[in-house]
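>> received
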Amino acid sequence: MRKAVVRDILDRFTPASAVLSLYGDTDRSRRSAKEIVIALKNLNRQALRLVEDWPREDQEKMRNLLEGVFPRVEDLSTDLPRGWSFFISPEVPAFSLPLPASVAAEASLNERPRLFPLIQALSPFKKTLVIVVENRSVSFYHRYGAELELLLRHVVEFPSRIKAGGRYGMEERRIERRAEEETGRLLRETAAEAKGLFGDRLFKRILAAGSKELTAPLLTLLREQLPMEEVDLLPESPERGESSLQATLDEWAQARFWQEGEALVARILSEAPKGGLAAAGMRAVLAASNRGAIHQLVLEEFEPRSGVRCTRCGALGLDEATCPLCGLETKPEKDLLEALIQQVHGKDGETLVLGRPSILREWEGIGALLRFVL
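>> returned
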């Protein structure tokens, strides 16, 4: 999901000459409504100060946009997203996205959208198709930002089987077989529809939730029909409804992300010393990015770091006086990690932020999987 969202934002704002990036923290589990509103008002004032040099018409346009972003005290409720992102430019329609994780509040004005907080919030969440199978309905959901969107819902009637503690007669066995056949037909139709949605939207993961009697055979059908590395069951929840489903999905994704992060770091540190399809450490990662070799950039956490950028080809470096690629002089780059993220995504790579310390710390907290050996 994060790669698709980032690509969408970069495509939207590539023509822009300046982009105001805003991140707000609206996590009610950490602060009261009053504290959130005070922080948002401060962020609003900070944003307005950043655009004081814009033409009056553009400033007024931004004020009107912000009025729809910063909620009043009476508008705050427990169903708010934990965080949100908002991007504004004079030349491009504004874009906003609620986030499934809290972010540090900040406002920045640059030539391009600021991406790091967005990527960090989205990193645990892949583009996922969630299928909820219950006795009288089949629902297909998809996750975008903090929103769980309903794609399709069908009213169905899964037949109930005869359950008896004693012997079955012929009629009971016929009823049971018919129930099994009808259940199998409905589940095959569900798996076929999931396959169609998967092909159209290129999901990275499919999860089944609902009645265990139905999700277990559905999972078998999905694994037979789809070329998926990740087809799995969501844990059963005693509660029903979209809010409960979203909470279960969040918890599952966070737990799986921890496991995936550990495996990814181990893979990088296994390959990088051998000169394989990985790089570790700032200088090696920058060299790989300059050559368009990065498939997936991995960062522990954000640490402010400056560097240099080539005045002609845009190659990045740490302290080189001349470009490592074309030999021209370099100029200072005050936010090297943000520039690196922009460069990686501009060459169709992606970024994952662990959001915690790992054994990658011995390599300056940065590594990458590569498309080709350098």
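>> The two ends are 28 Å apart (CA to CA).
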